[in-house]
């Protein structure tokens, strides 16, 4: 995830403002004081119940205070409207907005849970694979399909795309609306539990990039009718997965035709969750710094980047990337949804990102049958 600066929202008691933090501290101190003063003064018959109630209130107050401090540091939610999901939708009309409602029952794709073992990297992890409805059609029995590879954030896993971003329904709508061609979508597990490998081949460590960009495609090609046309893969990620998407695509331009990052960052992070992935080797770190790569190489992988308007860390990362690219990388900046660094923002940004990726992917033949026209009258 991005390490964001606290966002200073307007309003006296804004979620990320100092007055609100001060109020939480005052409430916590008041509860502690009241509990200590009243501990032995409650009526005998109610003493146990009231003491337990005070302890529960203290735990709730401490949890809320800790959550506010973490939110200020990482910028997950910028306001109470953001926290409660009351922000307006993206104003730009994406392709999916023109669909004629939900797809028919026969147009639903299916998701398979698989285990993908890497013969080159030595890594074996779980993944989700989405197959479009047309994949099982007799007319498409000999068709091969382009692929979109999705990366999740840290901490997290492939299921976050389903549970928080409603991936299957989103893809069904996008394909039914002809916003993207019928595609196979793979969501591999891109990190080990408790360790943020940032999808890189660590020096003397796990070969995460090799697993994601070499082994996963090989496994998919062995199991499914994946297109063998060069550059028939695209990649998309959110938060840490956004860094992964851009970094992996930059390193493998012969496979990935385009990459998109939602609230991503473009310089590697070194902290307790990552450890020292590069062992002090400057060249390896630069190789895994998309911003540095964009400033020093011409890279034939167009990028789509977007972040919430109240996500200063990710917004700043986009501006730095734009300044570094200077025409060496084709860069498209999407409409920034209202909100911070959270799934609400990413769910709003996903349709336009998929639309953009779909414009770069080859169309399998046969595609979906033509949409019937109204007869009028």
Provide a descriptive summary of the structure in words.
The chain has 377 residues and is an alpha/beta fold. The chain has an 8-stranded mixed beta sheet with strand order 1-2-4-3-5-6-7-8, with helices on both faces. α9 runs parallel beside α10. It folds into 2 domains: 57 residues; 259 residues, Alpha/Beta hydrolase fold, catalytic domain (Rossmann fold), CATH 3.40.50.
In whole angstroms, how far apart are the ends? Answer: 54 Å
Share of helix, binned: 25-40%
| Number of helical stretches of at least 4 residues | 11
The oligomeric state is single chain
CA-atom Rg in angstroms: 24 Å
The general outline is globular
**Percentage beta strand:** 5-15%
CATH class label of the largest domain: Alpha Beta
Major sheet description: 8 strands, mixed
The name CATH uses for the topology of the largest domain is: Rossmann fold
In the predicted model, the low-confidence regions spanning at least 5 consecutive residues are: 1-10, 96-100, 370-377
Number of domains: 2
Query: What is the strand tally?
Result: 8
Sequence of strands across the biggest β-sheet: 1-2-4-3-5-6-7-8
Mean pLDDT: 85
Structural class: alpha/beta
SSE ordering = HHHEEEHHEHEHEHHEHEH
Question: What is the fourth-level CATH superfamily of the largest domain?
Answer: Alpha/Beta hydrolase fold, catalytic domain
